[in-house]
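Now for our target.
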Amino acid sequence: MRLAALTLAALLSAATAPAINVVLDYTYDSGSFFSTGTANGQKARATVKAAADYFSSILDDSFARVQKPNDYVSTAPNSPNAISTWNWSIEFENPSTGGTVLIDNPVIPADEYRIYVGARNLPTSTLGFGGPGGGSRRSSISYYFPSQLAEIEAITEDFFAAVDRRGEPVGEFGRWGGSLTFDTVGTTWNYDHTVAPTSGQNDLLSVALHEIGHTLGFGASAEFQGLGVGNFFTGLEATAANGGSNPGITVDKGHWTNGTISTVFGGSASQEAAMDPSITTGTRKLWTALDAAALADIGWDVVTPGLLGDYNSDNLVNAADYTIWRDSLGTGNVIGTYAEWRDNYGASAPASSLAVPEPGSLVLLLLAGSGWRRRC
């Protein structure tokens, strides 16, 4: 698949009709971090939703619906029915407990990418982790007449392709979704995506973008790992976005090399890549051209959002966005540019609407770190 127009838009704007709908599911959230009864809980939900909406706005794939097919019944005179059946299940880590969740025969609508979200106490210096979920599919085939076999095989092929790859071509990433969790103990959060973090705060928006990136397969899929050769990532789009050189990756092939620099996706501001393994406390990291290129390399159709200068994800370029840009000056992590904000002042965009696993796999990435540069 292709990566389109890497240099044309700013982060956190919304497309009018996203092809992929990143849906957040709080079914397994059992703590207070995302409680709708608290101000911080409401802000936390809004911030993670802003990150999910961002990915909905730049992912232009069309994913197949995943649903258990109806049983196929074959009959013959004076004989019992022969029944072919198909089943599937998803498996992921409970984001609030760390236990394993297994769900049999869920229905995943077309173009939906479902992420189960929660929070709990994570290891020291770990701000969050996430990854694509796993699952399995199976069939039991029984029929009387050879003429029925072709129909049964077609059902099986379509179902397995939807489960394994969401109908995408072989070799391209396609899953039902995944899970992500955030730390609840020992982390001072900036819960509010509409304002920049202050000194001593860890930015929830930055961590959400990073961890959702992992759920989409960055560093946590066979497609990504297969492009890692030694200490480098060999994807063509990422190489082009990195000035023609293969970008460096960590030993586990899960992140860019720490300190990797790119530009904000759709903008011109230089920034440390969102998908390197750490973030400096008190700063915000947006999605970069290099991060977007890696998603294209593993099979996503990536397009650019369309509202320059909207730095707080409210679909309007106004004074609030200027404040975020101004407050980021001198932090070493400047968000956007004054010219970009000035030239697009008053612009607006409509909000976007919200609405597969390898057999037997469960991929959840835990990231550790230390010191004042917190890992995420």
Observations:
- Residues 307-350 form one domain.
- The mean pLDDT is 87.
- Residues 39-58 form the longest helix (20 residues).
